[in-house]
Design a protein that fits this description.
The chain is of the alpha/beta class. It is built from 27 helices and 25 strands. It starts with 19 loop residues before the first strand and ends with a strand.
C-alpha cells in the first residue's frame, strides 16, 4: 500500500466543474444544537470563494420520525421482528391514538413554539405515560410550584424517550437520539461488520435519512458532498449516505472527515471503504478540503492532495504531497450557521439538574477560544494528535468580533466554547473584552481546575455572562492525578470549584474509573471525595466515564510504564483507536460502574449524602479511608490574598454616594466617610476613615473609565502611599474593602 507513488496511479474520470460543496452531518449528534464542524467549514469555504451549503440530517430525521405522519407508519409496522413485544411496548401500542394526537404539539413545544402547552402537559393525564415515567423525579422538588415550562419540558422528554424505546425495540435496534449503530463503529478494527450491515435492506431510519438527503441533493446540486463524522454513532449513516449517492448520483464525489476518521482511520488499509466514499481527510479540514476542491476542478494532481486517503488501482493510498500550509485559527473566518434549522432544534431536560441540562437544552452558538490544548500532558488523552497538540489561541478581540457576527446572523446570544480546555488568561481577556463592548451574552466552556481561577477571576467571568464550566476531576485521587499528569490535586479542585460556585457559576466534573493500577480502595475513596464535594455544594453535576485506552495516548503508546499489557497490539485494517488491555494489578471490577453512576444520580438530585457508600453497590466494597470532613477542612483554609505588582485592577460597579460624618469618643474627634454602594445584588454602606474613604472614591472614579488602559496593583499602591495614609495598604485592601466590594465589582482577576 505505502510503496505506491500517487502520480503513477489514476482516479476515475472527474468532470471539472466549479465546485459546489454540500457539507453534511449524518444522524445523529444532538437534539438541541447543530454540531459545529460544517458551520466552521462553510464559513471558511465561502471566505475562500467556494459555494457551500450545509445540513444536519440528524434533526431532519428526528423531526420527520417524531411527527404524526411517520409515527402512524411506525405503529403500523409488524412487531416482534427484532424481539418479542415487551409489556412496555404493548402498553405504548395500546395508547397509539393518544400518541398520534399529541406528538406534533409536543414537538412544537420542545422547539419553543408552543409555550402555552406547558400548562396542559403539567396536568398529568394529558401525555400518555409508559416506562420512562416510572423513574420520574420529584417534580415539586426539582421545579417548584411555578417552574411550569421546565417541568413540562422534563415530562415531554420522558414522553419522547418512551417513543424512542418503542422504536429501538420494535422498529430499528440501531436507533438512538444522539447516535446511530454506535456499536458497529466503536473499535471496528475490520470493516467486515459495517460492510455486512451495508448490504442489508434499509432500515426505517435509513429510509428517512436518504429521503431527506435526496431532497437536499436535488435542491443544492453539489459536485462534492463532504460528510462530517464526529463520532462512531454517525458512521453507519455516513456510509449509507455515500452508498446512496454512488448508486443514484454517480457524478457526485464524496469526502469524509471529522473526529472519527481523525482518531480511528489513520492507518486505513481496507479498500472496500471506498465503495462508499472517494476521499477521507485527516485532522483540520480547511486546507485538505480546499486542495481537494482544487483537484476536482482539475487544478491539482491527485498526488498533491493534503492528508487524504484515496483508492488508486484497487489499493488504499495516502496522498500528502501538497505544499499548502494549514490555516491559523484567525484565518478560518467566523462559523456560518446559515442553512441549518436553528429554530427547529429540540430542547429536552433528561435529568432535573440545572447544570446537566446545558448539553441538551437550548440552542448554542458554538465557538472555540483556542485550537488544541494548552496543557497537553494528560496521559489518557490523544496528545499525539494535531487536534490536541497544536495549541493556537485566538485574541479576545477577534473572539468578540465573531460573537457579534454570530449574534447578528443567528439572533442567538448563547455561546458554548467547545475548547479542550480554555486557559484562565484567555477567559479573563475575553470577559474584559465583553465588558468593554457592553455585550449581553451567556456563555460556558471546558476548563482545567487551575488555582489561577481565584475568587476575583470567577466573579469577573460571571459578570461577563459565564454561567457554567466543566472540567476533569478524573479519579479524585492525588496519586492517580499525578500518574495522569493532570497537574492538579483534589484539594485544589475543591477550592477552585468553591470559587466558581460562590460567584454563581455552575460546575460539572468529568470523572473516570478503571485507570491503570487504580485499586478498588482508590475507587471508593474517589467516590467519597465526590460525595463530599456535592454535599458541600461546590459541584452541581458530574459524570463517570469508564477509562478507555487509545492508541494515540501516552498510556497506549507506552503501556509498560503504566504496568498494563495490550492484548492485541497489531493494527487493524479499518479503525484503530481503543485498545483492549490487561491490568496485572487486577484490582478493578467492572461491576463498580453501576454503583458509581447510581450514587452520582442521587447526589445530583441532592439526596443520599447520608447513605453509607456500600448501599450503592451489590458487591462488597472496602470502607473509605477519606476523613468525613476532608473537603470541608480544605474549604476552610484561607485563600492566599496577595497581588503581583503588574496585576490589573478593575472596577465594574457604580460610583458610591459619599457622606462625611464626625465621630467623637472620650474627647477624641475624627472624620469618617460613609460610602453608599448600590449594586446589582445588594446595597452596602462602607464606613472608612475619611482619608481612606476619599482616596478610595477617587481611585474608583479613575478605574471606572480605565478598561482600555487598566491601573495596576503597583499604581494603586503608590497612589495610596503618596496620599500619606498611615495604615498599610495591603491590610487596608484585603482586610477592609476586598470582601464587601467583591460583589460590587472591584476585582484583581
Amino acid at each position: 500500500m505505502w510503496g505506491f507513488a500517487c502520480e503513477e496511479l489514476f482516479l476515475p474520470k472527474i468532470i471539472h466543474l466549479p465546485s459546489r460543496v454540500f457539507l453534511v452531518t449524518p444522524p445523529f449528534t444532538q437534539l438541541n444544537s447543530p454540531y459545529p464542524a460544517t458551520a466552521y467549514l462553510k464559513g471558511f469555504l465561502q471566505k475562500k470563494g467556494f459555494t457551500a451549503s450545509q445540513a444536519d440530517l440528524g434533526i431532519d430525521v428526528i423531526l420527520k420520525l417524531f411527527s404524526r405522519y411517520e409515527l402512524t407508519r411506525v405503529f403500523e409496522q409488524p412487531t416482534g421482528i427484532f424481539t418479542p413485544l415487551s409489556e412496555n411496548a404493548q402498553h405504548i401500542l395500546s395508547m397509539k391514538a393518544r400518541y398520534l394526537a399529541t406528538i406534533n404539539p409536543v414537538i412544537e413545544f420542545l422547539q419553543g413554539k408552543q409555550a402555552a402547552l406547558a400548562h396542559a402537559i403539567c396536568v398529568r393525564g394529558f401525555l400518555p405515560e409508559a416506562g420512562r415515567f416510572a423513574q420520574l423525579d420529584d417534580l415539586e422538588w426539582a421545579f417548584g410550584k411555578m417552574g411550569i415550562q421546565d417541568k413540562a419540558k422534563h415530562l415531554a422528554t420522558l414522553y419522547i424517550d418512551d417513543i424512542a424505546d418503542y422504536i429501538t425495540e420494535q422498529i430499528d435496534p440501531f436507533f438512538g437520539f444522539s447516535r446511530y449503530a454506535e456499536q458497529l463503529g466503536r473499535s471496528a478494527q475490520t470493516f467486515d461488520e459495517l460492510h455486512t450491515a451495508l448490504q442489508q435492506p434499509l432500515s426505517f431510519t435509513d429510509h428517512l435519512t436518504l429521503g431527506c438527503l435526496q431532497q437536499y441533493l436535488e435542491l443544492e446540486k453539489p459536485n462534492l458532498v463532504a460528510l462530517s463524522v464526529p463520532f462512531p454513532g454517525n458512521l453507519l449513516s455516513a456510509f449509507r449516505c455515500g452508498q446512496f449517492i454512488k448508486t443514484n448520483y454517480p457524478h457526485i464525489r464524496i469526502a469524509m472527515g471529522g473526529g472519527f476518521p481523525n482518531t480511528e482511520l489513520r492507518a486505513l488499509r481496507d479498500a472496500r471503504v471506498f465503495d462508499y466514499v472517494d476521499f477521507i481527510t485527516l485532522d483540520d479540514g480547511e486546507a485538505p478540503l480546499e486542495v481537494l476542491l482544487q483537484h476536482l476542478e482539475g487544478k491539482v494532481d491527485v498526488s498533491m492532495l493534503k492528508r487524504c486517503f484515496v483508492r488508486l488501482a484497487g489499493e488504499v493510498v495516502y496522498c500528502n504531497g501538497s505544499l499548502q500550509r494549514d490555516y491559523q485559527q484567525h484565518e478560518t473566518g467566523t462559523p456560518d450557521y446559515s442553512g441549518l434549522r436553528l429554530r427547529d432544534y429540540i430542547s429536552v431536560i433528561e435529568v432535573a439538574n440545572p447544570m446537566h441540562r446545558l448539553w441538551s437544552d437550548g440552542v448554542w452558538n458554538k465557538l472555540t477560544m483556542a485550537h488544541g490544548c494548552y496543557w497537553g500532558k494528560c496521559t489518557f488523552c490523544d496528545i499525539s494528535l494535531d487536534y490536541i497538540k497544536n495549541y493556537e489561541p485566538l485574541t479576545a478581540s477577534l473572539l468578540c468580533d465573531r460573537m457579534e457576527e454570530l449574534i447578528a446572523s443567528t439572533g442567538l446570544r448563547g455561546f458554548h466554547f467547545v475548547d479542550e480546555a480554555a486557559t484562565p488568561a484567555l477567559m479573563r481577556s475575553l470577559a474584559i473584552e465583553i465588558r468593554k463592548r457592553g455585550l449581553i451574552v451567556t456563555w460556558w466552556t471546558n476548563i482545567r481546575f487551575e488555582k489561577s481561577f481565584t475568587e476575583d477571576l470567577c466573579y469577573l467571568l460571571k459578570s461577563s455572562g459565564c454561567i457554567a464550566v466543566s472540567g476533569g476531576l478524573e479519579v479524585a485521587s492525588d496519586r492517580l492525578l499525578a500518574l495522569i499528569d493532570k497537574g492538579i490535586t483534589v484539594a485544589q479542585v475543591a477550592q477552585v470549584t468553591r470559587n466558581f460556585t460562590q460567584a454563581g457559576i455552575m460546575v460539572h466534573a468529568y470523572l473516570m474509573y478503571g485507570y491503570p493500577t487504580q485499586s478498588l480502595q482508590e475507587t471508593v475513596d474517589s467516590l467519597e471525595m465526590v460525595r463530599q464535594m456535592f454535599a458541600a455544594g461546590i459541584l452541581q453535576s458530574a459524570f463517570w466515564h469508564r477509562f478507555a485506552m487509545t492508541v494515540h495516548s501516552p498510556v497506549g503508546q507506552n503501556p509498560s510504564r503504566y504496568q498494563v499489557k495490550i492484548n492485541h497490539p497489531e493494527l487493524g485494517t479499518f479503525a484503530n483507536n481503543d485498545l483492549e488491555f490487561t491490568d496485572p494489578q487486577g484490582h478493578f471490577n467492572d461491576e463498580m460502574g453501576f454503583g458509581l453512576k447510581k450514587s452520582l444520580f442521587n447526589y445530583m438530585h441532592q439526596i443520599g449524602f447520608e447513605k453509607n457508600l456500600q448501599e450503592w453497590f451489590e458487591q462488597k466494597i472496602p470502607k473509605t479511608s477519606i476523613a468525613p470532613d476532608f473537603i470541608q477542612q480544605t474549604l476552610e483554609l484561607e485563600p492566599i490574598t496577595s497581588a503581583k505588582p503588574t496585576q490589573k485592577v478593575y472596577w465594574f460597579g457604580v460610583a458610591p454616594k459619599v457622606e462625611l460624618t464626625t465621630k467623637s469618643k472620650k474627647g477624641h474627634t475624627w472624620s469618617m466617610a460613609h460610602l453608599h454602594f448600590s449594586g446589582w445584588q445588594q446595597n452596602i454602606v462602607l464606613k472608612l476613615p475619611e482619608d481612606q474613604g476619599l482616596w478610595l472614591v477617587s481611585q474608583l472614579n479613575i478605574l471606572q473609565g480605565s478598561l482600555g488602559e487598566p491601573i495596576t496593583w503597583k499604581d494603586l499602591t503608590e497612589s495610596y502611599e503618596a496620599a500619606g495614609i498611615e495604615e498599610d495598604f495591603e491590610l487596608f485592601w484585603f482586610n477592609k474593602i476586598r470582601k464587601p466590594l467583591l460583589l460590587q465589582g472591584l476585582l484583581i482577576p
